[in-house]
Amino acid sequence: MAATVIDVDGLGKRYQLGANRQRTDTLRDLIAGSVRSLFTRRRHEARTDFWALRDARFQIAGGESVGIIGSNGAGKSTLLKLLARIVEPSEGRARIVGRAGALLEVGTGFHWELTGRENVFLYGSILGMSRKEIARQFDSIVAFADLAQFIDTPVKRYSSGMYVRLAFSVAAQLEPDILLLDEVLAVGDLAFQRKCIDFARNLQKRSATILFVSHNMHSIKTMCDRVIYLRKGHVVFDGPTERGLQLYEQDCCLSDLSWISAPRDEWPIEITGCELIDANGVARSVWDFGQPIKLRIFYHTQRAVADPNFIVAFIRADGVACCNYSSEADGIVTGQIAGPGCIEIDAPPLKLVSDMYSVSILVRERGFGRVLCGQTGATFHVRHSLFDTHFGVFHEPATWKFSRRSEAVPGDLSSCERLAGRTA
Amino acid sequence: MHSTLVLEIEPQRGLAALDFPSLWRYRELLYFLVLRELKVRYKQAALGAAWAVVQPVFAATIFTIIFGMFAHLPSDGLPYVLFAFAGVLPWTYFGEALRRASTGLVEDSELIRKIYFPRLVLPTAAVIAPLVDFLISLAVLVVLMIWYHISATPSLLLLPAFIVMNVGLALAFGLWLGPLNVRYRDVKQILPFLIQVWMYASPVVYPLSMVPERWRPLYSLNPMVGIIEGFRWTLLGTAAPDATAMALTAASTIVLLVGGLLYFKRAERSFADVI
Q: What domain count does chain B have?
């Protein structure tokens, strides 16, 4: 067993919220407040304390890769910021043994007016590298970012992709014993994300310790064998990734979609259940490639709604929306609905590649209007030995023709034999 | 394997020790931040770094016309242009350094929220960067001195001491106002007035001798009085400033600086939370 490199002991961070804080946000209020308090008896104002993180306790051994999961506002980023020394804890303590590097956002500290070259040095020094170190690695940084041509152009003329690439290339030169990563892997295009994963893998090979915050269950799964699950600032689970993710999925089931602003108690409709069933009527969460899925959605209407539009989407673990079914788009008139009810959707045999997917359920007013309800439904997995995300979103066999004669002319396929495809 | 570094993270109580070693470790960051300030300042300006000369020359010219030619303010027997320039020189630096040190933390709030580094680096870089402008202006003053046939006196050897005091004072006030600005953005609004009023409360456009004798001790509580008088003395060979006033200036600068460092250290713990 490797020695403990991160020892977190009862760490907590408190923020003060509400009236009291806003009161003294400007100097005028401060002065007015102090004058007022000269004349009135000082009342003890009830301060609204908010614990972003409370009583976190865990130990991480050298070489471990640990994912931190939880919904928005669960305290994931706070935990990382505490360990990165950006904010100071309100209670408890943590001990870090070894050189720690934090990547909470790539490119923070870049200056728009400076050239790529100037920014490489500036950003490198912000991340704690020495000038010598940066100068020595300069060429490989530029090569990695693939920006040799633009290195003396001000960064403000870069596309956002170039910007992130350069920033990350600098960051990738960091060689910490302990790396604190926050959602960095979520930015950029797919190719870039793969680069990031490779970077993290390389660190893993050098037996660096990685603490990784992400919403992306897919990256957590590929990188970590242990997860710490935070809920409302508390550690609710600390153990094997598989089990932690399961727990998280259960908690997420029927939870609100994060982008919907209206609070749930204002929704006229609520989804009360979501089942995925196969042709034999058996509920399942693991599916074979191409197997038809039947969705059963239970709802409850608080007040009557005319003609709502039910929308069901399959979202891949890495956030890609793979398909969307809408009752309105399919020409269904749902009519007036009130009270409890259930709808059944027969999805065509989708050939989604093997990965994890979640179902999100949205109810809108007719004409794709106001959102009446938006919840995460069930999560399911698709299995196939070959087709994974490298093959795209779905796989469908094509019809192939192919000629054995060398004199084949473009446009003339009459001589081609038709090859019967093997159906998957 | 690196030498094992153990980091303890816990709430700090009381006055934390001033962490000069970590500031030293981050000296290269300081260097690059100063470089950034310098480079960004005159990017995409046709005149570029020439602005460093134009600004004080312009100020000295205006003062010469208004206060020297129209108002006939005395100038310790020197050509008014020289007199004014020797005052504008330390003042321009001070005003600029103070402004940057006070507002710099908020301008770099992204850095503070996302990356750990000793926060002291920011105001320090802010007061170092305008030194370059200062040195360029100093060269202009030397040219003016040659033009007016003013020769240097041995007191010139003390000029560096006054420069150091000037930098120290700007940093001291920056250390107080910077964290205040993080919490109360009002500071940024007040700052231009403060700097302007302060200038007229310092002997930039008029000589100290114009201040009535009985008000002098009170007047000399303004540490810029001693510094500006010191500049005139060491550069132009005017009468040596009063030793007591000088000692008072030095002492108050040191007190403000140490106090500022302690205050900054205390305040920086919550920067990332409130910025």
A: 1
Torsion, Cα B14 B15 B16 B20, to 10 degrees, reads 180
pLDDT higher than 70, residue A122: yes
Q: Considering only alpha carbons, which residue of chain B is nearest residue A30?
A: B184
Neighbours of B23 (CB within 10 A): 17
Distances (CA, A) of B89 to A240, A294, B83, B142, B163: 66, 80, 10, 12, 10
Range of the domain at B197: 20-274
Name B196's Cβ contacts closer than 8 Å, sequence gap at least 6.
none
Q: What is the mean pLDDT of residues A21-27?
A: 52
Q: Does B121 touch chain A (CB under 8 A)?
A: no
Q: For the structural domain made of A264-391, what CATH number should be given? A: 2.70.50.60
Percent of chain A with pLDDT over 70: 85
pLDDT in tens, B21-52: 777 888 889 999 999 988 888 777 777 778 88
Complex ipTM above 0.90? no
CA-based nearest residue in chain A for residue B39: A114
**pTM of the shown model:** 0.75
Is A4-28+46-248 a domain of CATH 3.40.1440.60? no
Residue of A284 and B171 predicted with greater confidence:
B171
Which residue of chain A is at minimal alpha-carbon distance from B272?
Answer: A87
Which among A83, A84, A88 is the nearest to B12, CB-wise? A88
Would you call B269 and A154 a contact, using CB atoms and an 8 Å cutoff?
Answer: no
Q: Residue B2's pLDDT is what?
A: 44
Quote the tokens at residue A85.
């020394």
Lookup result for tokens 């020439």: B50
- pLDDT the model gives residue B243: 83
Give pLDDT, residue A98.
Answer: 87
Count CA atoms closer than 13 A to A110's CA, side-chain side.
25
If pLDDT is split at 50, 70 and 90, which confidence band does B216 have? Answer: confident
Query: Is the CB of residue B213 less than 8 Å away from at least one CB of chain A?
Result: no
**Chain A residue numbers touching B43 (CB-CB < 8 A):** 113-114, 154
pLDDT for the residue numbered A32? 65
Q: Which residue of B has its CA nearest to A110?
A: B111
Chain B residues with beta carbon closer than 8 angstroms to that of A114: 36, 39-40, 43
Residue at B3 is within a domain? no
Selected residue of B4, B8, B10 to mutate for chain A interface (largest A Cβ count, 10 A): B10
Cβ B29 vs Cβ B108: under 8 Å: no
Q: Is the pLDDT of residue A52 over 80?
A: yes
Structure token pair of residue A330? 């399919």
B11 belongs to a structural domain = no
B111 vs A: CB within 8 A: yes
Strands A286-288 and A100-103 turn out to be unpaired
Q: Does B149 touch chain A (CB under 8 A)?
A: no
Tokens 């300081």: give the residue: B30
More confident residue, B171 or A358: B171
According to DSSP, residue A215 is labeled S
Q: What is the mean pLDDT of residues B61-66?
A: 89
Question: Domains of chain A: which residue ranges?
Answer: 4-28+46-248, 264-391
Q: Do A118 and B111 touch (CB under 8 A)?
A: no
Q: Does A26 touch chain B (CB under 8 A)?
A: yes
Task: Residue A51: name the closest of A10, A7, A103 by CA.
Answer: A10
Edge-first strand listing for the sheet containing A309-316: A286-288, A371-383, A356-364, A309-316, A321-326
Phi, psi of B83 (to 5 degrees): -55, -50
Contact A36, A209 (CB under 8 A): no
* Interface membership of A82 toward B (CB under 8 Å): yes
Pick the most confident of A185-189, A407-411, B225-229, B270-274: B225-229
